[in-house]
Here is the input.
Amino acid sequence: MSVVIRLSRAGRVHLPYYHIGVYNSRTRRDGRPVEELGFYDPKSDKEPVRIDLERAKYWLGVGARPSATVATILKGQGIPSSAWSAKKAPSKADKEKKTAAKKTAAKKASAKKAAAKKPAKPAAKKADAAAPAKKRKPRTVSSKARGEKAKAKS
Here is the structure.
């Protein structure tokens, strides 16, 4: 299960506030969180952000990935980016590169084994190499050309 720390929107039109929570990565935007960590109120002057830093550090240590906005909020609260960037999850492209590299290495190893098992073949004779080319079939004559030839003969 891939876990992310992200915002879920609440409030009304033109007056948003956000819950900061830990979510399964496949959960919809305003879905049920695994755990609520705090809130972010961009319109408030008093206390725009309140977050449980101890629990946030725990989830980052376990491998939860913060969204871009939550990462900015965490930096503002004093949690360095090294807390979550050190455990970077491999991307899909990285996984594909690794599997491709493994496949090519396996092919090379099997080719070496096959070459080691086969005895060396003697060189082919020059007469076999210089075999005559196949004869081409004559071109077919179009019906229009046939009609003209028939007229010319009669």
The mean pLDDT is 80. The chain is about 40% helix and 20% strand.
